[in-house]
């Protein structure tokens, strides 16, 4: 097949391209530039990534093309990111980036180049079972990225290969080193791509200037000042500036309209936990399961799937967990699983616990 691989400069996409070439496919690499607002060496690694991508493709003797999706990223991902923070929620731009850029703009670009399939270095698997494509968890549970891919559909999965989905991360590194790839020991990128290593709050303030406001306890006691409620997320400990004796303080609620931040002391304070949530419009990768159903779900990337009961809500899903879950955050995604299969998910609208009854919005 003719396969177009998204080459990022990292070891995962490099090994994906290597494995495809070894399998006899006609492989072309594409480097995507998705951000250019302030892509200086200080803040953005795009030039360094491109240089490494070129070195990888030269080593593999495959063509490397470049494409600029910065306008699409701004319109489809970053604008949403800002709107969500402005409303007091905490979005996950990686989920939307996969849907709108890597498996939409990039896929269409690759198909226009005559590709049969696209491939990426994601840790995930695709299987065609009983007449439909299924998104399955990666062999490496610690690196599985299906959480970020739940918005993909049948068209995207039909055209996608995940060559490293059956490998452990250490195997990927070993294959890269044995093949002499120049990035075999390159550090994995972390965080949100357009922010890089800079201070998150300072970056966000450039686009969303905020007003200082009160930090209160759940009893209404004024215990400090914040830089802007939108800058904080549920479960956050650092950056609150609250002194005094006792356990550390954690963000347990936000009131964006009144610019109030609510906090409580203790890593395991009851206000940090809830047993259920309401999510918005659900995206099912294949056929929707019959609800209600006993399934599993995760509300953040680095979390094992949690047993739960999933039912229909007025405009989405109601998910009730068998055990209380910590720091469920509106704006993040709840992703639904059945054994090894990722079924789909939705954006969290509301975490349901005692704070809701007390009138404190989260």
How would you sum up this structure, described in words?
- This protein is an alpha+beta fold and 362 residues long.
- It folds into three domains: 2-178, HUPs (Rossmann fold), CATH 3.40.50; 210-265, Adenine nucleotide alpha hydrolases-like domains (SH3 type barrels); 272-357, Elongation Factor Tu (Ef-tu), domain 3 (Beta Barrel), CATH 2.40.30.
- 25% of the residues lie in helices and 30% in strands.
- The protein has eight helices and 18 strands.
- The protein has helices at 11-22, 46-60, 70-86, 93-112, 154-158, 169-178, 200-207, 354-357, and strands spanning 2-6, 26-33, 63-68, 117-119, 124-129, 132-137, 160-161, 213-217, 222-226, 249-255, 260-265, 273-279, 283-284, 293-298, 306-312, 317-326, 333-338, 341-352.
- The strands form three sheets. A six-stranded antiparallel beta barrel has the order 12-16-15-14-17-18.
- Strand 17 (333-338) and strand 18 form a beta hairpin.
- It starts with a strand and ends in a 5-residue tail after the last helix.
- Mean pLDDT is 92; it is low at 354-362.
Span of the ends, CA to CA:
49 Å
Sequence stretches where pLDDT stays below 50 over 5 or more residues: 354-362
Q: What is the average of the pLDDT values? A: 92
Beta-strand segment tally:
18
Largest sheet: 6 strands, antiparallel, barrel
Helix vs. strand class:
alpha+beta
Strand order of the largest sheet: 12-16-15-14-17-18
CATH class of the largest domain: Alpha Beta
